[in-house]
Structure formats: structure tokens, C-alpha cells
Amino acid sequence: MANALQEQLLKAGLTSKQKVRDVKTQKRRNRKANVDDGSSDFIQQIAEQKKAQAEKDKALNEERFAQAQEKGQVRSLITEVKKLAVSLPTDADVKFNYTLENKIFSVYLNDRLQQQLLKGQLGIVRLDDSSYLVPHKLAERVNLLVPQWCGYLWSQEDNAPAVEEDDPYADYVIPDDLMW
Questions:
Q1: Helical (H) or strand (E) element with 84
Q2: What sign does the CA torsion over 105, 150, 65, 83 have?
Q3: Residue 109 forms beta bridges with which residues?
Q4: Which residues contact 67 (CB under 8 A, 6 or more apart)?
Q5: How many CB atoms lie within 10 A of CB 86?
């Protein structure tokens, strides 16, 4: 089984027995050439390989530790989101749209919850195909640890009016209650 390829090549006539023997001889010579001959170059090469492997193993262990710690934080974050989530009203009449990973999602809210979202008191977190209204501080933590879950998070930079010097529409006021 070990030499099945060699046997197939011999049967097909693509190689000869002499070439197979030459290849085996060359492999044996190459293995013997890598044996410790006591030279300082060989010892130095082995030491560098061991050092590189140790650094690689250390980096891998640190990465695994960080992932495990993050998983624990993510689990606690999920439970905290579900625990502190504000319940969505059943008689909501305002449709609030937000984007997450280039998809548009909608949540139906009442006026009070909409104002809290727009003032930055609440944020929207989406996980397990559900949207949760959570306090702003928790939404910020979710945005830091798992940004792909944070659907809507109010920030001062988003609401700062952009002032352009040559704006032709500067005289026209945009209403605050404009919904898209």
C-alpha cells in the first residue's frame, strides 16, 4: 500500500525500476544529511526552530485564552441583554427602521420609546433574530464586544449638524420628526 503509486507508474510504463531505486537512495541520503553532525550551524538552526515554535505556541495559547474569556463575556452579555430589555408595546403605531449589516430591520414603538431612542437613552440590539430595546450603556458595551449585534446606537457625532459653507439648502429647515 505504501508504494501503490510507484507500482502504478511502473505498470503504466512511466518509470523504470532503476529510477525507483534512485529515488529511494536519494531519500535515504537526504535523511542522513539532516542527522546531527555536531556542527554549530545545525545546532543553531535547531535552536531557532524551537524558539520560533515556542513563540508560535505562546501566541496561539494567548489567542485561545482571549477567545475563551470573550465567550464568557459574550454569554453574560446575552443574558444581560435579555434581562434588561425593555418590552416592546403591543399597541405600537410608529415604525422605527434601523440598518444592521446592510439589512433594514423594523421595530414598532410608541412615541415615548421613540423619543428615548432618539435622545440616546435606549439602543437596539439584535440577536437570535429578535430585536431588543436596551439601556444605552448596555448597547455601548455590546457595540464594543460584538459590533455586529448593535442595530441602533445614538451618538453625538451622528446628530451633530454638518455645516457646509456653500450649502444651497442652508435656509431650509429639516423637520425633527422626519422618518425614513
A1: helix 40-84
A2: negative
A3: 94
A4: none
A5: 14
